[in-house]
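Task card 7
Instruction: Convert sequence to structure tokens.
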Amino acid sequence: MTSRQSRTMSFVEAITNVGVGFLLAVLAQITLFPMLDLQVSVADNLLIGMIFTAISIVRSFALRRLFEAIRLGVEKADNSQRRLPRAAASNVSYAGAKRSAPGDRQGVDGASPSR
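Output:
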């Protein structure tokens, strides 16, 4: 079983990811827009960066939930395959001791009865 990230660290990661993404987007716009002869004010660059950041957050959340659902489905399938098949489980009691076959002369504790 894999260890899980704490909620606090997930929040720190998400905030860092959004902040870095926003800064990179604005810096890319300030650098690339003039190369494309697009004249945009700093305020408009910030607004565009915020819009794309919001889109990125929604996209990231949706993909994370999708992959979590896939992961849970795979874990569920793996767990169901790890169970003993019915035929193998039928010879094991709840205590884990092997059940005696019909005709065996064993006592309740699995020992041969005294004569």
